[in-house]
Amino acid sequence: MAKLNQPTTSGRKSAQRKTGRRHPLATLALIAIGLGLTGGVYAVATSTSSASAETATASQQQIDDGQKLFEANCATCHGMNAVGTTVGPSLIGVGAAAVDFQVGTGRMPMASSGPQAQEKTPQFTQAQTDLLAAYIASLAPGPGVPAEQYTDGKGDAAAGAELFRINCAMCHNVAGAGGALTEGKYAPPLKGVTPVHIYEAMLTGPQNMPVFNDRNITPTQKADIITYLTFLEKNPSPGGFALGDLGPVAEGLFLWIFGLGSIVGLAVWITAKSN
């Protein structure tokens, strides 16, 4: 009888298997935890990559003052709530950087319709521009005005030159002199443009320019490009007369007209002298 009461070996193994079996919802729980961790890491990485272009949170008073300025000067084209109209695009999500660039360079408000907005003397002070930017930034998340550390011109000029040649020179010319595009549009010259506006242009892609967000060109790389353009502006052409920095076409035309013209003129003078 004592032997009959003892559990068999197969019974012990079966009990072990039952106690060691995972709950049917364990797999779903693991998947949920994995997705949660992945989302958290992505959120941290995204906020870190865009942290270079964030500004301090504006006060409600600044937002209210910016809204008044907007309704008085911008709502005709962009709508009372900045949602856009048939003559102006929506500004939801463009961020403070786009406002600071467009208004700070005088492109907005536009003087007249055309292929693209012309740069002109700004109609708003920097303080008023900041208020408009604060209001637009309060409507939806968007790129912010860059931190000073990325616009002080203390980056790597050599690395910036390489990045500029790869990403920007086909439109703006390797020396930043600008160039013509199609349908009456153009890439403006970059000399005399403030570093902040150059950074904002890369970040927001105004007019026909593509958007170079922080995943395409990092904030440090943007700072290097700005350093290269600052170097060009501070250092004259080592070859002498730059001819507008327009490249070999302008140089060839100069040689053809003045060089060949001088030779022809000299030949005529020599012939006339001998006669």
TrEMBL record:
Its EC number is 7.1.1.8. Residues 61-140, 155-233 form the Cytochrome c domain. Residues 1-13 have a biased composition (Polar residues). It is found in: Cell membrane. InterPro entries: bc1_cytC-su, Cyt_c-like_dom, Cyt_c-like_dom_sf, Cytochrome_c_Oxidase_Subunit. Pfam families: Cytochrom_C, Cytochrome_CBB3. The cytochrome bc1 complex is composed of a cytochrome b (QcrB), the Rieske iron-sulfur protein (QcrA) and a diheme cytochrome c (QcrC) subunit. Heme c 2 binds at residues 168, 171-172. PANTHER family: CBB3-TYPE CYTOCHROME C OXIDASE SUBUNIT FIXP, CYTOCHROME BC1 COMPLEX CYTOCHROME C SUBUNIT. The chain crosses the membrane at residues 253-272. This is Cytochrome bc1 complex cytochrome c subunit. Residues 1-21 are annotated as: Disordered. The lineage of its organism: Bacteria, Bacillati, Actinomycetota, Actinomycetes, Micrococcales. It is a multi-pass membrane protein. It catalyses: a quinol + 2 Fe(III)-[cytochrome c](out) = a quinone + 2 Fe(II)-[cytochrome c](out) + 2 H(+)(out).
